[in-house]
Amino acid sequence: MKPLVQLALDFFAPPAAPAQVPAAPLPDPVAAVRFSHPQANRQALLGPAVVDYLFKRAKRRSIGFVVAADGLVVSAPRWVPLAEIDTAVRDKSGWILRKLGEAQARQQRMADARIVWQDGATLPFLGQHVRLELDPSHRFAGSGGAALDAERGVLQLALPGHAAPEQIRDTVQAWLMRQAKRLFTERLQHYAPQLGVQWTKLTLSSAGTRWGSASSSGAIRLNWRLVHLRLSIIDYVVVHELSHLRVMDHSPRFWDTVASIVPDYAALRGQLKDEPIPQWP
Fold it and tell me: Which H or E run contains 88?
């Protein structure tokens, strides 16, 4: 059987709630951009943007700022007056707007990555997109219900045209998991000798936020959803986990071990955090 990595190289060309705290007064000019936390109870005008944020008192020594998917959250000790909060928010405006913009862009990318499970839909596979094609002839029923047409960039599914979205999704997921198991095995076998380590078992994970783990026994867990991403990112995760078989922490020695195989691991690590992938149940 042709290695999945070679198949990928042959197939894919380079990618082309009511306010609990009085809100700060808002100047008359209407801002061009608005960021709103769903539980916002305060508001600030920061340059060209109106920011509705959640403010809360907390047991802490200083004012804290967190930008997450929902928006900006500001926390402060009970003794800090609101006027000082307003000043701190304005002073932090550059950082706040940059982070809110990044969060908004990521949310949009995730929305764009959402898959409508029907004939003609597309999904990422090894960093590129394949199109789903339902094949009522069921020609691939004997091969797990799906087959990749490399020349056309099409994943053919042995399903009738009236197949339910859940049936399409489950068939695709099963195919992706098979490809993940095969590819991850190939990459582990490729990199383990270079690191001088031995792995004993590969398990596919469906964790929501964790991409992989390794145990001192040599057992490796890798998230099957990695198969959506480019091979270079997958290789970084594989090398990361194999490196833990030499160094079981994240000390400088660990990162030196990773860098010996993947010198640009820092850039790939950042891309892994930012890369939008389809949401699975």
Answer: helix 82-91
Query: pLDDT tens digits for 149-208?
Result: 878 899 999 888 889 999 999 999 999 999 999 999 999 999 999 999 999 999 999 887
pLDDT (average), residues 210-235: 95
The per-residue DSSP string of 125-170 comes to ETTEEEEEEE-TT-TTGGGTTEEEETTTTEEEE---TT--HHHHHH
For the chain, how far is it from start to end, CA to CA, in angstroms?
31
Q: Give the strand pairing for 219-223 and 212-214.
A: antiparallel
Q: Show contacts of 254-262: CB within 8 Å, 24+ apart.
A: 257/195, 260/195, 261/191, 261/194, 261/195, 262/235, 262/236
- Could you tell me if 116 and 281 are in contact, meaning their C-beta atoms sit under 8 angstroms apart? no
What secondary structure does DSSP assign to 260-278, as a single string?
Answer: HH-TTHHHHHHHHHH----
Please identify which residue in the block is written with the tokens 């001192």. Answer: 216
